[in-house]
């Protein structure tokens, strides 16, 4: 029954197709929640007074913060393309060019770059999907580029809620 | 407050001060909210098991961010992360201690910037490297302070 869970041709048809860009306004609270979720106490991320005396002149986001911007949309996209498939995160590559600050507006562009099939030892047939994502700020500066690897696998036909 | 790391203080083979984390299910929920990663395998045990997993697992990207903290704690305020990569090879479970570690591979100067390249990884209690990775950072040099420049980023894509 779950034969259509991994429609590889449908995924291949998406290679190189740019998604509708996502636009995100960065608030201080988002950076705070991020730092608190990791339990990273570095005052540069949260302490306005401390950060104002730093070379940055104010709070900046930790470099890894950018990975969360628009991440939910990638997941929704995958869920829509392959409903019911098991999904694991395979890897992350990041190149970082500019710090992100509260008040920035970040535009996220993304596309599927690669689709490969693999036979897994535990999970059976897997499809490895690579995404290329780029982030620009309101000054049109390239903030970061990122490559994410998602692993899709067949399940007993469970659907995501 | 992390101390400032300078290029001159780094040598190949140096170990990065380890960072120990013990993610709880509460932290996974906080992370889901902060990151927008609502895959139920990270908070719904029944769902996770229905997907062939032993139970709820820690988000890959939370582990990546632990490794990010390992690096930013080490390089200090004036250091910047230029490149970061990691693979989520093994599963990590809430309640288990995770030790983030790193080791300097090499350092080099290019276009006046001082680069340090390191192996980084997260280890489970069995000592298995469940999240191996690599980072390239730019740090200040004692001979060439960064001065008032707000950034030594600016490395073009």
Mean pLDDT of chain A: 89
The rough form of chain A would be described as: elongated
Instruction: State the low-pLDDT regions of chain A, or none.
Output: none
Number of domains of chain A: 2
**CATH topology term of the domain at 7-22 and 60-138 in chain B:** Thiol Ester Dehydrase, Chain A
Strand order of the largest sheet of chain B: 1-3-4-5-2
Helical element count of chain A? 5
CATH topology of the largest domain in chain A: Thiol Ester Dehydrase, Chain A
**Beta fraction of chain B:** 25-35%
Question: CATH class of the domain at 7-22 and 60-138 in chain B, anyone?
Answer: Alpha Beta
Q: Terminal Cα separation of chain A, in Å?
A: 19 Å
Query: How do the strands line up in the largest sheet of chain A?
Result: 1-3-4-5-2
Based on CA atoms alone, the radius of gyration of chain A comes out at: 18 Å
Distance between the termini of chain B: 30 Å
What's the assembly state of these chains? Answer: heterodimer
Largest interface (CB within 8 Å) is between: A-B, 48 and 51 residues
**Mean of the pLDDT scores of chain B?**
90
Beta-strand share of residues of chain A: 25-35%
Low-pLDDT parts of chain B are 147-157
Index terms:
heterodimer, A: 161 residues, alpha+beta, Thiol Ester Dehydrase, Chain A, 5-stranded antiparallel beta sheet, 35% strand, elongated, B: 157 residues, 5 strands, disordered C terminus
């Amino acid at each position: 029954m779950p034969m259509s869970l991994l429609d590889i041709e449908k995924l291949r048809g998406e290679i190189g197709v740019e998604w509708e860009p996502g636009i995100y306004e960065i608030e201080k609270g988002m950076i705070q929640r991020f730092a608190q979720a990791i339990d990273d106490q570095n005052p540069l991320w949260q302490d306005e007074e401390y950060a104002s005396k730093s070379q940055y002149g104010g709070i900046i986001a930790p470099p890894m913060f950018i990975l969360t911007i628009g991440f939910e949309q990638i997941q929704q996209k995958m869920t829509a393309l392959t409903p019911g498939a098991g999904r694991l995160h395979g890897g992350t590559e990041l190149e970082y060019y500019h710090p992100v600050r509260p008040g920035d507006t970040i535009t996220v562009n993304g596309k599927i770059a690669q689709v490969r099939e693999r036979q897994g030892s535990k999970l059976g047939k897997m499809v490895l999907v690579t995404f290329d994502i780029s982030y620009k700020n309101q000054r049109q500066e390239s903030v970061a580029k990122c490559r994410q690897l998602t692993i899709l696998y067949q399940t007993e036909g469970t659907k995501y809620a | 407050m992390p101390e400032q790391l300078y290029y001159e203080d780094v040598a190949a083979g140096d170990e990065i001060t380890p960072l120990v984390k013990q993610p709880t299910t509460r932290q996974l929920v906080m992370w889901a909210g902060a990151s927008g990663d609502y895959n139920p395998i990270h908070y719904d045990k029944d769902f996770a098991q229905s997907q062939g997993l032993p139970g709820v697992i820690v988000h890959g990207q939370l582990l990546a961010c632990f490794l990010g903290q390992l690096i930013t704690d080490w390089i200090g305020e004036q250091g910047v992360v230029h490149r970061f990569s990691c693979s989520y090879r093994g599963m990590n479970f809430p309640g288990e201690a995770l030790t983030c570690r790193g080791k300097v591979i090499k350092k080099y100067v290019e276009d006046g910037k001082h680069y340090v390249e390191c192996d980084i990884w997260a280890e489970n209690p069995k000592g298995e490297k469940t999240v191996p990775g690599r980072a390239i950072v730019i740090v200040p040099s004692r001979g060439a302070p960064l001065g008032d420049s707000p950034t030594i980023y600016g490395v073009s894509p």
